[in-house]
TrEMBL record:
Keywords: Kinase, NAD, NADP, Transferase. This is NAD kinase. GO terms for molecular function: ATP binding; NAD binding; NAD+ kinase activity. It is an enzyme of class 2 (transferase).
Length: 231
């Protein structure tokens, strides 16, 4: 069954940092998209790296129909974090070593361009995590949760994972984990990875966590060097 979405006529491109050798690949991709009737706009930092003009990220995100990253998974994830608030379709073109999320190779782009222009493509949504950090100097954690007017000190977005870790080299952290305010588990460890399926092949797998299909709706809790944990 075909999926019909808004036609993509203007694409913003972000390149892997410190990679001026990507200029040739970018120009080839730009020509490929232009031939399909799709305008290409380069992000300003990427443009400076390869000595071409570009636009700042906010302009890119507000003027384009989609964003492409040119690099590896790290470049795509960095772009996704920046693009999150704009709710734009994003795609990674793999020129790096790791390509779990960036499956499309530059030489295969021509098979996809006509689908972009016609809207005959499928959007796949990934699970994203949000963390809210509250000050506990004067207010208990539970009070912060119950008080809807309480403003978090910081709100963060994660595509791969959040990491709660210790400050010192010695000792461990003690973490009580709850799900929907119901006690789940206690971890005594060097740190706790709270990961997404997309991030399961990143730090999580190095710490012995499970690998999960990217489009599942699971949240991973993986302790790092645990001394004791119970479920």
């Amino acid at each position: 069954m075909k999926s019909h979405n808004a036609p993509i006529t203007k694409v913003g491109v972000i390149l892997r940092p410190s990679s001026p050798e990507l200029k040739t690949t970018f120009l080839q991709i730009k020509e490929e998209l232009n031939n399909a009737g799709i305008e290409v706009i380069l992000e300003s930092i990427s443009g400076g790296m390869i000595e071409l003009l570009g636009r700042d990220f906010h302009q890119l995100a507000t003027q384009c129909d989609a964003l492409f990253s040119l690099g590896g998974d790290g470049t795509l994830i960095s772009m996704l974090r920046r693009a999150f608030e704009y709710e734009l379709p994003c795609m990674g073109i793999n020129t790096g070593r790791l390509g779990f999320l960036t499956a499309l190779m530059p030489q295969n782009l021509h098979t996809f361009t006509s689908h972009l222009k016609s809207g005959d493509y499928t959007l796949q949504k990934h699970l994203v995590l949000q963390a809210r950090i509250y000050s506990t100097l004067n207010t208990a954690y539970e009070d912060n949760l119950d008080n809807k007017n309480q403003t978090p000190a910081q709100t963060l977005i994660a595509i791969n994972e959040f990491l709660i870790s210790k400050h010192e080299l010695s000792g461990m952290v003690h973490i009580d984990a709850s799900i929907d305010r119901k006690y789940f588990n206690t971890y005594r460890c060097d740190g706790l990875i709270i990961g997404t399926p997309a991030g399961s092949t990143a730090y999580n797998i190095s710490a012995g966590g499970s690998v999960i299909y990217p489009y599942c709706r699971n949240i991973l809790l993986t302790p790092i060097a645990p001394h004791f944990h119970r479920v």
